[in-house]
């Protein structure tokens, strides 16, 4: 089945209208430039500014535009256009609405609703956004951005030396005698401030939060310390870097202030990034029972029962996939893909090939996970397919996105489904190649059996008749030459005498006779 891409369904002649439901201030533009652009990239940032520039402030909407109008303004093709649009969608900067049916060609079929960015405080508090930003910028530049968007208070106003003396509303203004409320319809149309607090959320996660809580509580970390912000960071680190419950417990212990019994989310994030950067190709995943020596016996028993149930389910799943056509070796590879986080998995393969995982490759893997278009284990199968099966030297974002899109359209979710899908495509490709070879061989036999037609000019007899030289006249000797010259002179003299006689007769016939 041929690979299809999202931009292939885009009609450049389709009409789109851009609306702006939120205020976008100069401070928002600074946030977009310094905090969003490192994550979404330059093309997506330019697309956002292109949409914003087409909005008319009189009604906070643009005139109807064709898609190709925006492409020409960006100097971008369909592929760049749709990719940039999807990057804005995934991070919460753009919402798209499409009309299901339209009869008139001049109807607007798509609405682009431009969203204001989150404020800097929410970005640094958002576990996904802050993790991506730190991954892009590094700790030094990340700290510079923290300082840039932090208030520099010269004195501590909360100390007892300072007292607030601000005038109240009642001190200055007289309260109105009558209240004039606005209708809900008008209120809904007013341009408001973006009330979002999260740029994006990871909904699908295999992290067992209950087990993690029990591990933390057994290490004398109270349940109050596990706030919603801490939970969100746990999920983010688990999904992005592959840390399991035991890894997260160890990181949380290092990031906990024992005096206040609180987990420092920023420190937790930095520690996770350091561990991920120092990872080699080996897996950090350890069985839970090896890291729970200090836990209660009840927790250990529950983990043991859970592991037994997991093994039983795994055996049933193995039989299912063996029946589908996977080999035991392929099943072992799928289990390996489930055991490694994508970054460590890709790094291990690159090091075995004598290379190293570049920053752009790591960013491409992280973005695919953040977009939630593919499971981490399935992404590992894709990485193995690109680097080992196809013998590619490096992972490119465009190719990974095209493969992920193809798998998503063909309902490939689990790593075993991906391996089965690749196996079927490889078998189909081999069958098509064998068919072409048979056709080529059959055509070759037909050509050898055809009777050769010889041109006439190759026939020796024909060539002799056509190209035979005429027989030359016999040459005369030098002794006979004077006789021949004398004979020629006599013939010429006789010819001249005959000609003179004819001329005389003609003249006589022309002269009139005497007496006439």
TrEMBL record:
Residues 274-300, 427-498 are annotated as: Disordered. It comes from the Bacteria. Residues 275-299 have a biased composition (Polar residues). InterPro entries: DnaB/C_C, WHD_DnaB. Residues 348-421 form the DnaB/C C-terminal domain. Residues 456-468, 477-492 have a biased composition (Basic and acidic residues). Residues 24-269 form the Replicative helicase loading/DNA remodeling protein DnaB N-terminal winged helix domain. Belongs to the DnaB/DnaD family. This is Replication initiation and membrane attachment protein. It comes from Aerococcus viridans. The lineage of its organism: Bacteria, Bacillati, Bacillota, Bacilli, Lactobacillales.
